[in-house]
Amino acid sequence: MSSLHCGNKIWVLIVIVLSINCLLSVSAATFGCTTGQSDDYRNVALQINRQYRTLLAQGKAPNKCGQLPTAKNYYEINWDCGLETSAKVQADNCAMAYSSTPGVGEILFMASAASAKDAVKNGYMKLVNTPVTNGADPDTYSNPNNDWNRIVNYRALYVGCASTLCSGMYKTVCHYDKPAYSNQNLYERGDNCVTDADCTTIIESTCKNGLCIAPPKPDETINTQCPLNPSMNDYARDQLVKWHNYYRALVIKGNEPAAGGRKAPKGKNMYKIKYSCTIEQNAQNYANNCPYPTHSAPGTRTGWGENMAYMSGGTIGENMGKSVGLYYSELLTPGMADLVTNVVSFPGDMGAGHYTQVVWGKTYEIGCGGKLCGTYWHLVCQYNVAGNYNGTTVYEVPITGGNGGCTTDADCTTQAADTCSVSDGLCNRA
């Protein structure tokens, strides 16, 4: 234990010490990796990452003065054999120099140790305590904290490590699936999760001990839904449908924050989104041109609406899911002018045009395509029916009070045979 003077206060800092016996008792996981590292080694590295993230999320990780701020939407880390393999290649060269492995966050350290397991344990415990010496701010990438930035980076969900004995010292390298950049925050300040509903970065996440738990890593090689298009995969399609319906179900309840401290109005007769391979192929044909930011000519999409995004890094599935959140965020910034009658008015509402298409009540199916052009994904989604008709209601607003959304089939009146999806308040189009 040590004490430091911070302004007029004396903060007592307890440097993190993690018991190796405790770490080994947490899990008996079998990882299935083939680099020659032991599962005990992997378990130690993984559990240090997990326990430190838990402390950080709960506001118990020490900083130079007090503790680091609590973290919102902060996720548990998992092990990845592919990252372990790339880390092993870098560790085996025995040079004390960072690699140029694209798309990963890399930490490395070299030290004497009795075993590879001790090397990774001791190295990590030293790195997670660097804020005690240097101070840290989750809003700012700090060069003095170097590898610590990559350890706490909230974008990273997977890690893989390897240690190699080099002239009597172990060189340890760990690769994370997402790099940390100097112009990005390390995590979002806010209350750690308490319920599953607090975890909104990845759909179908759960909460445990203040950390969000992502569902199992998807297999983006599966392409059975629309097999004629090899550029997309079933995970990407699933993300698109789930995120569109997630936001549509939220907004129709009337509790979503909007620009100017307002709320989105309650709604009714909003359709639940389905996926269309026909629309996807049309969207993919346009995405193949690397077109962002130019929209396709209306005549080439037979009256369908269109949203586009431009994103770097990641997979097409990850980015398709994230793009829906970007579109939806326009409800808050810059927002719509009229949230009483919910009528869209152009050109004033152009800045919210992606949002209004996502929640356009009469839209019932989508199809999307994407292409990696250089280092950027060009993503195109098309919607049937099209939204964003000037002077038209985005979605119907109930005349009377009560809950937004449907509760029985009788609440869905756009077509005679429409039914209600009671769990989310959206209507199924007949």
Automatic annotation (TrEMBL):
<protein>
    <submittedName>
        <fullName>SCP domain-containing protein</fullName>
    </submittedName>
</protein>
<dbReference type="GO" id="GO:0005576">
    <property type="term" value="C:extracellular region"/>
</dbReference>
<feature type="domain" description="SCP">
    <location>
        <begin position="235"/>
        <end position="391"/>
    </location>
</feature>
<dbReference type="InterPro" id="IPR035940">
    <property type="entry name" value="CAP_sf"/>
</dbReference>
<feature type="domain" description="SCP">
    <location>
        <begin position="40"/>
        <end position="184"/>
    </location>
</feature>
<feature type="signal peptide">
    <location>
        <begin position="1"/>
        <end position="28"/>
    </location>
</feature>
<keyword id="KW-0732">Signal</keyword>
<dbReference type="InterPro" id="IPR018244">
    <property type="entry name" value="Allrgn_V5/Tpx1_CS"/>
</dbReference>
<dbReference type="Pfam" id="PF00188">
    <property type="entry name" value="CAP"/>
</dbReference>
<dbReference type="InterPro" id="IPR001283">
    <property type="entry name" value="CRISP-related"/>
</dbReference>
<dbReference type="InterPro" id="IPR014044">
    <property type="entry name" value="CAP_dom"/>
</dbReference>
